[in-house]
Amino acid sequence: MKKILPLLLCIVTTIISAQSEAHLEKFSTLEPDLWLGIWDSAHSNTKLKIDTLSYDDIPKAIDFRGTVVEALQWEDGIGDNLLIQTVTGHFNWKDYEDNGIDYMVQDKAELYAYLFTKNKEESSYQRKWKIYDYTECFGVDWYIGFLAKATTITDVDEDGISEISIPYISVCRGGMDPSSSKIIMYEDTEKYALRGATMIMCGSENAYGGDFTMSTTVQHNAIFKTFLAERWDSIKCEDSMQF
Fold it and tell me: So which residues are the signal peptide here (predicted)?
């Protein structure tokens, strides 16, 4: 027994040390931004001067949650615009029973997108809108995030007010089902949306998924209806997505 105790202490010390080193490595590499290349500059309006911002360039008075994956700034007929897209990454949350006492620990991840604007008469940015979504899952494949090279800033109706289109997907599955997919678009404070599913095994005779429904606002705007349908076709295939 005397020989076993030192051995056990050595094992425990090694495990604790390894855990501490892993946590220190995470802490030392913790960054406020990921810069995943969310903006699709090729399909955005070339007449708008759109600049990417680093984390330090974002005004300190602006309030947002999550880790920044893209920050863009430009001017249109409304004024100076600042778009910030963020994700939280995975974390645990307590899924309580109806009795409010018992719970199960589940997995969760969130994403946010914010538009802040400032006109010539204003000295600071004001939040115009916020997109918030999440996925809650347990024990299967799960994810929520923006698509790379997919967010566009356009003016397809040429009224001087930019449209911001933000595609993203959310996943909670245990097999080969399509992911939930959305394109949320704003022009000023008016919201337009396509909601549906990604396409699996694209280009084959066994392809499935890829359908969507339109919000009423899209149905009643022929220009935006055509534009968003084309955007959906360009991003619906899941086969090439990495997450």
Answer: 1-18
For 18, counting Cβ atoms within 10 Å of its Cβ (0-12 exposed, 13-18 middle, 19+ buried), the class is: exposed
In the chain, where the domains are located: 35-235
Q: Which residues contact 116 (CB under 8 A, 6 or more apart)?
A: 62, 81, 82, 84, 125, 126, 127, 128
Is the pLDDT score of 116 beyond 90? yes
Find out whether 65 and 84 touch, Cβ atoms under 8 Å: no
Is 99 buried (19+), middle (13-18) or exposed (0-12) by CB count in 10 A?
A: exposed
* Per-residue pLDDT, 100: 78
Q: How far is CA 192 from CA 40, 175, 201, 222, in A?
A: 19, 31, 28, 12
CB 154 within 8 A of CB 119: no
CA trace torsion 51, 56, 60, 65 (10° rounding)? 80
Residues 6+ apart with CB under 8 A from 159: 77
Backbone angles phi, psi at 202, to 5 degrees: -60, 145
- Residue 79, Ramachandran bin (φ over 0: left; ψ between -120 and 50: alpha; else beta): left
Of the candidates 147, 149, 194, which has an alpha carbon nearest to the alpha carbon of residue 171? 147
Which of 218, 172, 162 shows the shortest CA–CA distance to 195? 218
* Residues 46-76 pLDDT 10s: 999 999 999 999 999 999 999 999 999 999 9
Structure tokens given for 219 = 């149905």
82: number of Cβ within 10 Å: 21
